[in-house]
Amino acid sequence: MEDKYSGKKIDVNEYTRRYMDSILIEERLIDSVLPTIETNIFGHRFSSPIMTPAFSHLKAIGTDRDSAMVEYARAAKELNILNWVGMEPDDLMGEILAVGAKTVRIIKPFADHQTILDQIRFAEENGAFAVGIDIDHVYGYDGQYDEVDGIKMGPVTSEDIKSYIASTSLPFIIKGVLSLQDALKCADCGVKGIVVSHHSGRLPSAIPPLMVLPQIADELAGSDISIFVDCHIDNGVDAFKALALGADVVSVGRAIMKPLVDEGTSGVIRKIETMNEELITVMGYTGSKTPDDIEDTMLWVPGVDF
Ligand SMILES: Cc1cc2nc3c(=O)[nH]c(=O)nc-3n(C[C@H](O)[C@H](O)[C@H](O)COP(=O)(O)O)c2cc1C
């Protein structure tokens, strides 16, 4: 893909993949036993630290099938993993929440703050597990605030974030943190979770999330803020690397698209179960009995030549 500004051939997702693949893992086998991967998030015990992505705009995935959003919510429910939803209107959000999976609603940074407050309230009244906004979708590529489905986006200030947090009793999450500076602002505002992410490359030349993750995790250590990470977490080995560098939980994104489109709920269940098996295997090889035992010292990062 060509960068819109410089005309250079760069692809943020490709760089993210290359950085991921450049990270290598050492073995710690003596005294290692079969690990477990249960994970605690906001007081609930989930079966795995791997969760679904904040997708949106996925209509019916076959003439006789439900929305893909509902299909993957069913997979999350069956697997007891955390489910995420992006920009969806209240009626579909209601259908997704009715599935009964523990679900996070990520709302767009709408210019109209009342829409954000209304969507937070709808999520809370209909049983969402947590809510948040994706701060990395403020700008379009024409030097203006972006417009999605004809709806204007707008800037997000610290004061805005505090007002959203004050409006709800649900944990509030900021998605699209890609710097220590934003992570610290989130902490000051009182958020309960951040998603370290570049949203599959909204910012041209964005750094891979795993590059900045260790810095953020170090600074937030000991706080009550959960660190979520996405972008090219395509298999259980990628999940292990993110957990080692400081993530509490990770999201698999576009890597569930094909199983989701081809087979719906059962495809997503199989993909996540395979990732769980891959994660458990690497944890076994590194002597990590639980996700909390996974450490950055298990990784070697010889560097990548971009
Ligand atoms: C079809 C599609 C729709 C998405 N919609 C949203 C959205 O509404 N809100 C959001 O925060 N992120 C959205 N995302 C971004 C994902 O949540 C995630 O950050 C991104 O895909 C990076 O992860 P990946 O590399 O594993 O795909 C969407 C991604 C895709 C592919």
CATH architecture: Alpha-Beta Barrel
Number of helices: 10
What is the approximate shape? globular
Distance from first to last alpha carbon: 15 Å
Describe the structure.
There is one protein chain. With 306 residues, this protein is of the alpha/beta class. It has one domain (45-293): Alpha-Beta Barrel (TIM Barrel), CATH 3.20.20. 37% of the residues lie in helices and 15% in strands. The chain contains 10 helices and 14 strands. The protein has helices spanning 12-22, 68-79, 90-98, 113-125, 158-166, 180-189, 209-220, 236-244, 257-263, 265-285; strands spanning 24-25, 39-41, 44-46, 50-51, 83-85, 103-107, 130-134, 147-148, 151-152, 172-177, 193-196, 226-229, 249-251, 299-300. The strands form 4 sheets. An 8-stranded parallel sheet has the order 4-13-12-11-10-7-6-5. Strands 1-14 form a two-stranded antiparallel ribbon. A two-stranded antiparallel ribbon has the order 2-3. Strand 2 and strand 3 form a beta hairpin. Helix 2 packs across helix 10 and helix 6 packs across helix 7. The radius of gyration is 19 Å and the shape is globular.
SSE layout and pairing:
Layout: H1 12-22, E1 24-25, E2 39-41, E3 44-46, E4 50-51, H2 68-79, E5 83-85, H3 90-98, E6 103-107, H4 113-125, E7 130-134, E8 147-148, E9 151-152, H5 158-166, E10 172-177, H6 180-189, E11 193-196, H7 209-220, E12 226-229, H8 236-244, E13 249-251, H9 257-263, H10 265-285, E14 299-300
Parallel strand pairs: 4-13, 5-6, 6-7, 7-10, 10-11, 11-12, 12-13
Antiparallel strand pairs: 1-14, 2-3, 8-9
Helix pairs in contact: 2-3, 2-10, 6-7, 8-10, 9-10
